[in-house]
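This part of the workshop introduces the protein records we will be handling. As an example, a complete record with its sequence and its C-alpha cells follows.
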Amino acid sequence: MIKLQITAFIAVFFMTVSMMILPVQTEQELQRERQDYAAKLLKLKEEQADLEVKRIADAYARMSDEERLRGDAEAHKNY
C-alpha cells in the first residue's frame, strides 16, 4: 500500500515539475502544427495516388495488345 502511494506521489511530482518547465504552446503554434500535419497528410495521399497510378500503368504496360483493346472497348462501352 505504501509503495503505491509513493509511486503516485512521484508521478504527480514529476508531472507538476514538467508542467512548470515546459512552455505552453500559443494558439499560433498549435495552428501551425495543425497546418503542418494537414500538409503532411495531403502529401502522403498524393504519394499514394501517384503509386496507384504507376501500378495501374505498369499493369497496363504488361498487358498484351489484345487485352488492352478488349479492356478499352469495355471501358468505352460503360461510358
Q: What stands out?
A: The chain has a mean pLDDT of 87. The chain is about 90% helix and 0% strand. The two ends are 74 Å apart (CA to CA). The longest helix spans residues 27-62.
